[in-house]
Every structure is written in structure tokens, then in C-alpha cells.
Specification:
This protein has helices at 45-56, 65-83, 89-100, 106-111, 126-137. By secondary structure, the protein is mostly helical. α2 (65-83) runs antiparallel to α3 (89-100). The longest helix has 19 residues, at 65-83.
Amino acid sequence: MPGPVPNREADLARPRERKGGNAQPVTKGVMKEVKVPNGDRNWHPIAKRLWDSLKSSGQADFYQNSDWAFAYSLCEDLSYYKKSGKRSGQMLQTIYSAFERLLVAEGDRRRVRVELHEPEPLEQSAAVLAIADYKKDLGLEA
């Protein structure tokens, strides 16, 4: 989506779907089993760190094998760029631009309406808590 980075959904006065206008239908497919390849040990330290951070980032939940292959290729290019004696601003911009397609930065994710939130705290149901209290009262649990 071109233009400025949209606000987070929580910052809006009303949900986007209620605003009307240009809501586009979504074509859906089935996610396949994913195997994340190992990074190259010979990569530049920055490329290694970026690769490792991709594996533990929230947007990785949406990555398929083709996304991981693309990320691998980009880390290879970034490593080559960082290790090369002569650097080109255009090459760096091209690499960074390609990382946008993988939704690496929060602004990139918000442009395509993907927001990562803190995990919900695990809450026990009232019934489970009541049973635990009864056990405690009966001396069955410390």
C-alpha cells in the first residue's frame, strides 16, 4: 500500500471495515508445512543476526518456504554487501527495499494491515480456580 504508514488498529476511532470505501476481498489458500533452513556460518555478523531475528519474529508465523528462500537470498546479498570493499548506496537501498516485502519492520507490516500484539495472559477458568480452592481447604493440596 503506498502512502504514509497507517495507524495501528487500536489507535483508530472505529474499525477499518466500518469506514466503508475500498475494502478488498481476500483470496485465501492453505498454508503448507514449513522447514526453515539454517543460515550460512560464513555470513557477515549483521546478516546472521538478521536471519536469527527473522526466525523468532512474529511475522515468521506467516512465512512459507518461498519466503524463507527469499530471506536467505537477501541475507546472502547483505553479507556480500557488508563484506565488500566498495559499497554502493543503491545496492543497499535495493536490499532494504526487498526486506520490506518480508514485512521485517513494523511500518512495513502496518502498511499491509498486519499488527503483532502481546500474547494474551493465560487465565484459568473460574471452575478450575474453585476446585483448586476446595482442594486447598480440604488439605489435599499445599
